[in-house]
# Entry
Amino acid sequence: MINKILILDKNHPFIIYKLKKKGFICDENYSDSPDKIDISLYDGIILRSRLKIDKKFIKRAKNLKFIARIGSGIENIDKDYAIKKGITLISSPEGNKDAVAEHAIGMLLCMINYIIRSHQQIITKRKWYREENRGMEIMGKTISIIGYGNTGKAFAKKLSGFNAKILCYDILPNVGDFYAKQVNVNTILEKSDIVSLHVPYTKETKGMINYNFIKKFLKPIYLINTSRGKCIITSHLVKALKNGKIRGACLDVLEYENFSYNSIFQYEKFSKSFLYLIHSNKIIFTPHIAGWTKESKYKMDKKIVEKIMTLNKKFNKI
# Structure
């Protein structure tokens, strides 16, 4: 039975209200480091990205039945050790999938239609460039989605009205659907005009977008990344931008982000690659906000509560 839950990051007020209403005891700790938390007192913990839940922390969690991370990734949790200890891992990618999908489309439209660039030209340079900002339509293009889970599927569904050809690639078989045709990597490399990443951060996806991969694309591509920054090797991206293999990139995430994803400005000096990107008119940045809407904040917490309730029912049956 789940009784006592520790909440380690501030979330939508709904989550505490709902859990307490269901009879759970909820404690909050938004400042202590893992070594100062007596985790043995709790049946479950809820967090975002503030803390790393490693083997040492889990060993002290004598009664822990679940770890819930609000969001789509669980890379700050020692997944293998937690599972070995019989701890259930919970996340809520269903809650922000639509926010991520809308954001990715918004970034793409800004990129291919020069919306941000032309806006800045007007307000800072008093220039009214029309021909120089002639854009490109999504209709008729081939958009490839790498990683066809919750956010990838939501992205494809929202793209369906643009009359583009949507392909998807995933390590799991038979995930394609009405909105995207599942194909192999070679087809992605041959057909793509636009590529969007929707993968979790794992050993396999770390640095997956490198120059050896990029150079195999038959056509120059636009690249969108709303997953994790370290999936792209920045210096390789810069090389591809310089030689035209990548026409432009929409980056909501960067490999320079700190552990909790709340800053990239923790360094005294930036790499030459990053400095190139921030001065390039082929890049659109946003600060890891693709899944960060008012609606998703509520929906992710709601989904976590639902999953905790379902898990508790299973324990009660034992």
